[in-house]
């Protein structure tokens, strides 16, 4: 499993369906095929990032990144 935000593999499991990325400090809750993403603020509060990550991003995050590497010389 990788972080869908920064693609780090430095993921900690904090619950049965909850994961926390130590690299960018987001929390991922996976319920069935639904993914909820939260930003954990310094004061401990969380804000939803679901607007940034749609469910289809779970499948293959590489696909959305291809544009970055498609630069030909
Ligand atoms: Zn991350």
Overview of the structural elements:
With 73 residues, this protein is mostly beta strands. The protein has one domain (11-69). It is 5% helix and 34% strand. The chain is built from one helix and five strands. Strands 1-2-3-4-5 form a five-stranded antiparallel β-sheet, with no helix packed on it. A hairpin with a 4-residue loop joins strand 2 and strand 3 (26-31). The chain is globular, with a radius of gyration of 13 Å. Bound molecules: zinc ion (ZN). Zinc ion (ZN) binds at residues 3, 5-6, 8, 21, 23-24, 26. Zinc ion binds at residues 3, 5-6, 8, 21, 23-24, 26. This is Inhibitor of sigma-G Gin protein.
How many strand units? 5
Strand content: 25-35%
Unreliable stretches covering 5 or more consecutive residues? none
Number of helices: 1
Largest sheet entry = 5 strands, antiparallel
Ions, cofactors and other bound molecules: zinc ion
Kindly report how far apart the N and C termini lie. 33 Å
